[in-house]
């Protein structure tokens, strides 16, 4: 195992590394985990691997606190999902969870201790009005009242403006597809809806199919521009790939075929390449090369390696390679380019730049 990787990366590659940690190593590990927003996940993994005995007493205080906070957060999320089900029941709008809430409610092992800021739902576009009205009647209000922002979301994006509950302050992101309508990649959302699966213990709650969960995770990570949580997103991909490849026959062939069907070759390529390079996710030999059209080659591939291998490290100064801040900024600019063509993007950025700060 390469030892030039950040300590947190080495831990998630092989948790047994903590058995030789000194006090200073633990301190740095906690700081990196906190910066990457994965401290509760680290705490749960140490417990799962029976490695807590290696931790000094002062470290245990932080680990216990992170785990307790995560468990309280999980109870809160489950209650919010219960209230969403209550709001939408009887309206022919299935509750389809995405990302963190989906991993949590499906009780995926890798997601123990995962924290997130909002709950993501997927709703068929023709049912958005019904869903929004029902959620409004149950206290979730649009948090973007500016007329331009409303038009930006409703005309061009893949989601409604964020909805915030008037009392509990929970935030919902209600999507109708997984990429903006103006993006160059055009996955057919009807194919996602066709393959949704109910949770085993709750027939009213659904997730994407396992294959589509991987593709959505990849698409979200490699099209968004905020890499403060990039390492957390990479951990999600690593967990999804390890779990589903062990559970699904011919997983890699099916995954690659589905990516081509949904026009998501490029995000899948990045997902497999960087989860393997950074977290040593086991990818069968030749699988990445089987991904079809649209993947970067030559100088483009080298440039993306230089950017992503910097931006996807844990968000802590001790993990930054030379040029990491520039890499994150360039990928932020790239995310806007991927979201909208230039003839829409330039006027949009000018509009946002001229808006008074109190409206942003």
From TrEMBL:
Name of one Pfam family that matches: NTP_transf_5
Single GO term (MF):
transferase activity
Q: Which domain of life is it from?
A: Bacteria
The keyword Transferase is assigned to this record: yes
Keywords, ordered alphabetically: Transferase
> What is the protein's name according to its record?
Uncharacterized nucleotidyltransferase
């Amino acid at each position: 195992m390469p030892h030039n990787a950040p300590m947190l990366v080495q831990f998630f590659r092989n948790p047994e590394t903590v058995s030789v940690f000194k006090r200073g190593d633990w301190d740095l590990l906690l700081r990196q985990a906190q910066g990457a927003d994965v401290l509760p996940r680290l705490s749960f993994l140490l417990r799962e691997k029976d490695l807590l005995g290696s931790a000094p007493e002062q470290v245990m205080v932080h680990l216990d606190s992170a785990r307790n906070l995560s468990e309280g957060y999980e109870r809160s999320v489950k209650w919010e999902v219960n209230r969403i089900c209550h709001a939408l029941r009887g309206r022919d709008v299935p509750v389809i969870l995405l990302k963190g809430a989906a991993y949590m409610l499906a009780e995926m092992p890798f997601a123990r201790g995962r924290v997130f800021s909002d709950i993501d739902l997927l709703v068929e576009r023709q049912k958005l009005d019904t869903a929004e009205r029902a959620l409004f009647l149950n206290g979730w209000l649009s948090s973007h009242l500016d007329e331009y922002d409303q038009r930006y979301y409703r005309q061009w994006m893949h989601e409604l403006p964020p909805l915030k509950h008037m009392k509990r302050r929970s935030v919902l992101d209600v999507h109708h597809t997984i990429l903006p309508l103006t993006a160059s990649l055009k996955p057919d959302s009807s194919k996602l809806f066709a393959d949704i699966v109910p949770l085993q213990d709750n027939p009213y709650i659904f997730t994407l199919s396992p294959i589509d969960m991987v593709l959505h995770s990849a698409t979200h990570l490699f099209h968004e521009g905020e890499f403060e949580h990039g390492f957390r997103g990479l951990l999600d991909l690593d967990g999804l790939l390890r779990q589903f490849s062990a559970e699904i026959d011919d997983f890699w062939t099916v995954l690659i075929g589905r990516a081509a069907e949904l026009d998501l070759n490029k995000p899948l390529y990045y997902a497999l390449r960087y989860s393997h390079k950074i977290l040593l996710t086991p990818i069968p030999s030749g699988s990445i090369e089987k991904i079809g059209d649209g993947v970067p080659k030559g100088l483009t591939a080298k440039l993306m390696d230089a950017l992503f291998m910097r931006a996807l490290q844990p968000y802590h100064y001790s993990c930054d390679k030379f040029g990491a801040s520039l890499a994150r900024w360039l990928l932020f600019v790239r995310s806007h380019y991927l979201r909208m063509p230039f003839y829409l993007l330039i006027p949009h950025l000018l509009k946002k730049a001229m808006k008074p700060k109190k409206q942003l």
